Amino acid sequence: MQGAERIEITDFHKILFAHTHTAENYAYRLDSTTIGRAEGRRVTGGVIEIGFVERIPLVFKCEDGRERTASEGDVFVIPPMRKLDVRAACPGLHRHVTVESLVDCVIGGEENERTLDIPLVISGALCERATHAIRRAAGRFSPASDRGWFGECADFTAIIAAVESALSGRESRAGASPSRLRYCREAEEYIRANITRRLTVAEVAAHVGINKNYLTNIFSETVGMPLVEYVNRLKLNHVTELILRRGCGIREAAEQVGIDNANYVSRMFKKYYGVTVSQYKRTVM
Predict the structure, then answer these.
(1) Is the pLDDT of residue 36 over 60?
(2) Where are the beta strands (DSSP E) in the chain?
């Protein structure tokens, strides 16, 4: 994986901060080198930040001058002891959701069940589960929370597990042929651009220019989930945004993603998220 870095998390301390952040023409200097202690490759009490972009891509400029861009929907992971220049890719109202946690870790740790090969940016096509875990943790966090260590550790573990799942999907995608990658990328872009309409596999396949059965097969193998599930999850992400951030009811939110049956959306929500819409709202609001 290009730009990946191995990190072994050895202990979790607490969630330091978590929120949804909105800002006009966003830009800042990130410096986490003053938090925690580094002794060789081992870091004690360092900050790992995991978030995702909701509106207007973010550009991360590393100390070596390389830049990475997190598009809307992409997850970004910033290991401890880092200096980065971060800015919105274009003028406008940027928004991201992020969770910062204090951990002990080994940078460049040995490969085992606690080690992740983390790139700075993970494609949003594989991150529905991760963005849900991040949003959930951010919604539950409060500096005065009485949830305690176990509650925060559960949220952090859910995020790490979701990131690991996304990375596994990314690795399987890396072995796909260039033509399959192009077809799937074009399908993803078309779905995202038309997520507010009713979509069919045949329509997406026609746009890409291949047979719908072939698209169904290569999409599952390359992206790591069936195309229909990918569409459903993106629609549910949009529904969640409409309900939580814009105050829409479930029926109105369903109509805005091209579904005229609010009960169907409710059933999908429970199937993919494991909770009802009302339970989810009580958790994060």
Answers:
(1) yes
(2) 5-24, 27-31, 37-39, 42-55, 58-61, 67-70, 75-78, 83-88, 93-107, 115-118, 121-122
Q: Structural domains in the chain?
A: 5-174 (2.60.120.280), 178-284 (1.10.10.60)
- Residue 104: left (phi > 0), alpha (psi -120 to 50), or beta? beta
pTM exceeds 0.70 for this model: no
Is 70 exceeded by the pLDDT of residue 71? yes
pLDDT in tens, 208-250: 999 999 999 998 887 767 899 888 888 887 887 788 767 888 9
Q: Which residues pair with 100 in a beta bridge?
A: 17, 49
Q: Which residues of 186-206 are buried (b: 16+ CB within 10 A; e: fewer)?
A: bbbebbbeebeeebebeebbe
58 burial level (CB within 10 Å; 0-12, 13-18, 19+): buried
